[in-house]
Write a structure and sequence with these properties.
By secondary structure, this protein is an alpha+beta fold. It contains 13 helices and 27 strands.
Amino acid sequence: MSANLSLRGILLAFLLCLTNPVTVFANPSPTPTGYADLVAPLLPAVVNISTTTLIRGRGDGGQSPLDMPFPKGSPLEDFFKEFLDRMQPEGPRNATALGSGFIIDAEGYIVTNNHVVADADQITVILNDNTELKATLIGRDRRTDIALLKVKTDKKLPFVEWGNSEKLRTGDQIIAIGNPFGLGGTVTAGIISHIGRDIGERSRAGDFIDGYIQTDASINLGNSGGPMFDLTGKVVGVNTAIFSPTGASIGIGFAIPSEIAKKVVTQIRQYGRTKRGWLGVHIQSVTEDIAEGLGLKNLKGALVGSVVKDGPAAKAKLQTGDIILKVGDVEVKDQRSLPRIVGDIAVGSQVQLTIWRKGKIITVPVQIGEYEEAEEAGVIPSPEGGKELAKGTEIHGMTLQPLTDDLRMRFDIQKNTPGVLIVDVKPKSSAAEKGIRPGDIIMEISQEEVKTPQNVVDILKKAEKDNRKSALLLINRDGESRYVSIKLTPEEIVP
């Protein structure tokens, strides 16, 4: 009986399939026809970028830059000398890195990531036909991780055009072209996984990016600086980062929106640097507790935590506790959106701020200042180690500061990295001669852990009193540890 019922059920299902095949076997999406026709004209405008950075080896006198940290005649002298001889090259050597970029006009202007060309002594652009051209750095912006290069050539170069990233929607199809792992001209496809993604500490930039484009298209090491295209062949993003526990693509990649990148590029071409609007306030998010306490009905806007002395906001009489709701006619959705909105306003412009103050909505006129001028004056901390960061403990040409959360964010340093941060290095100092640079972290001196700038000073002074000619520093740079020895000269020590 049960067998007959089962057979009857199968027959009934089969008959239903025959009478209504579209409903049962419908395909929810059309089969892709391929991207070959779209990609063909784009490939010649995407370039590979190779950078070369000089790494110092042994000094001119045959001495290793890792000078002996032990007194002459020490039992460890021979062992340590042999170790250094094995580890150090006979002379300067070049470290190379690879990235991607794309040509934006026939004159040879090329867009890439700042982190691709940062600290490079030489930049080489490799075209799709394997032509190699030396590139000049026109300007770069660490705040958005964008850099602009220029190459000289007798022929007109193929180029691509900017698209509008603000028209993208989650689920739209995109393609990425780049140089992953040195494999040039590699095309990957995917969709927009999310619009306006906040990637927080994983970001190399972010101050003027209120949201990244997230995609599942494969983006790997070497794709940085390459273009993300929409299906009309326009650049809608600049690939910049991935989220991965292994370092390889797991389908979570991020791109800088084109609407942000092209404004930065335009300013660099015009001024050689960015020139952004600046309001002069320190802001924070409007949380539920804050909104309730102030009687605000929604969570929109940016809360003024403090006002910079003599800045544009101070001159306009903004107050701590004000909530900025609009800049001109543009609504401030949250804390992250305010820097970009103000940054896009021409310096010197007069705008009306709509603010919430003590239960009332009022408008306040303000004249927009220049962000970069404030940064140079030390009012705004510079990510490159500006004047404000240069204030600290100085010794042997190095300016030191403790590792605060703010400095970790500016220098892209992980939370669990210990030590003391070097924020400035004087030219021609012993530290500069040994290749030490801002952003390096001193973890140990003579195998003794350091946690504060004063630890560094105390250990170096003691080493000098013990008549040591050099001190061995364990330096962390970009997550990698290395030993560097600096000479101890009394005239360089600053109490």
